[in-house]
Specification:
about 425 residues, alpha+beta, Beta-Lactamase, Alpha-Beta Plaits, 2 domains, eight-stranded mixed β-sheet, six-stranded antiparallel β-sheet, 14 strands
Length: about 425
């Protein structure tokens, strides 16, 4: 074979080898693309990227530097060969800083001969950098979010072809970074949302349970403006309704307490809807009785609502008595209403063991409602003269007489309210 032919054959073999290597690198590049775009866990993703980058670039070490806008720094998410140690440098320092600021790739085959090279990292790591290939990481908005850097190829020097390949890898890295960031944002948002849902659910449960013990107006005030809870009692026109069971002491003494409790909860739970229908607030409960406050825009409205609610309670009592057969027979009620001005608000009781608050209406109107209620028997609704004067044109009521109540100086006229006048109150 002539020298010329031998030289051509060697050239073809070298060319074929180069093409095979390039094809192999393109194949590896496709694999990197598939791998990193399918992974969104950063802890898994970046060691994988660096491993594949070193493999395709045939280099000793690779690093991703991400930009920290708050601190104007570049920091390494992972650096192969450094056991995951974090590196932080100013975003204008070294080769990485220059690439980040200029958004241009750079090839340096004599690192220590370049004045931009920062030897501090080598001094800390013990690694000697000889060759550097560094490319910017550009996201879909065109912003530079960091740099991808690879060092010391086994073939001694980086070429322009190496620059093309690493730039292609950087596109995949930028995509994967963006996907991972979006995923983490969604994950954090989901976690925050779940935490907020749990908090809201807890608050709702607290609120729901709280409203079982306190009037709705207090619960609403505590929710919207808790500072107002410390206000003194305010003189307010109200109607007060007292309801309790007849012969409750005897029932409690002679029957199983579980059945007694069932009866009390059954009756009072069903009476609540009658109370709420007319804006009443359950204020106090005892073993066999409840106190309800009615406040409206006018005292006439409060009085009418209290009577309507009490008449509905009487109907509900009859319905329950038909449906449930308790061993003591039917339950009968005492019902009494008084209207007038009461001091409505929070009563604070302090002692060495702490502070207790109750929300109530105090004054003569409350005492009188209780006294009138105790006079009532057999589900008869008794109302005081003040209430009668406010509702007599809307409610049928009969005068029952005047009564001397304990600790009340003058006798009190009492009326029995029997039904609404349908043409007016329907």
């Amino acid at each position: 074979m002539s020298y010329v032919k031998q030289k051509r054959a060697i050239g073809r073999r070298e060319s074929d080898l180069f093409i095979r290597k390039q094809n192999e690198r393109y194949s590896q590049l496709c694999e990197i693309g598939k791998t990193i775009t399918a992974e969104i866990d950063i802890e898994v993703l970046f060691p994988l990227i660096m491993e594949q980058t070193n493999k395709i670039m045939n280099t000793q070490r690779s690093t991703v530097f991400l930009h920290d806008e708050e601190n104007n720094e570049l920091w390494s998410l992972v650096a192969t060969g450094m056991n995951g140690s974090e590196i932080r440098i100013p975003d204008k320092s070294g080769i990485a800083g220059w690439v980040f600021q200029n958004k241009q790739s750079i090839v340096i085959n004599d690192a220590y001969g370049d004045p931009r090279f920062n030897v501090d990292i080598d001094c800390r790591s013990g690694f000697k950098t000889e060759n550097i290939l560094c490319v910017p990481l550009i996201n879909s908005q065109g912003d530079c979010i960091g740099v991808l850097q690879t060092l010391n190829p086994e073939d001694n020097e980086f070429t322009d072809t190496d620059n093309i390949f690493l730039s292609a890898i950087s596109d995949y890295v930028a995509i994967s970074l963006e996907n991972a960031r979006l995923y983490n944002d969604v994950l954090k948002y989901t976690q925050d949302l779940q935490e907020q849902i749990l908090i809201n659910e807890s608050l709702v449960k607290v609120k729901d349970n709280l409203t079982k013990f306190v009037p709705a107006s207090v619960a609403n005030l505590a929710e919207s403006n808790p500072e107002e809870l410390s206000n003194d009692k305010v003189a307010t026109p109200v109607s007060v309704l007292f309801v309790d069971f007849e012969k409750f002491s005897s029932i409690t003494e002679n029957h199983d307490q579980r059945i007694v409790n069932h009866m009390v909860e059954n009756h009072f739970s069903n009476y609540l809807k009658c109370i709420h229908n007319y804006g009443g607030e359950l204020n106090e409960t005892s073993g066999d009785g409840i106190m309800v406050i009615f406040k409206s825009e006018t005292i006439e409205g409060s009085a009418l609502n209290s009577v309507k609610a009490a008449l509905d309670i009487i109907k509900e009592n009859k319905r329950i008595n038909k449906e449930y057969k308790y061993p003591w027979g039917k339950i009968k009620l005492h019902l009494g209403i008084s209207s007038g001005e009461a001091y409505v608000g929070i009563t604070k009781m302090k002692s060495k063991i702490g502070e207790r608050w109750t929300y109530t209406a105090s004054g003569f109107v409350t005492i009188l409602a209780s006294r009138i209620g105790s006079l009532s028997k057999n589900n008869r609704l008794y109302i005081g003269e003040d209430t009668y004067d406010l509702v007599h044109d809307k409610i049928d009521a009969e005068f029952t007489g005047t009564y001397q109540f304990k600790n009340v100086t003058e006798k009190v006229p009492v009326y029995e309210a029997t039904r609404r006048i349908s043409t007016v109150c329907a």
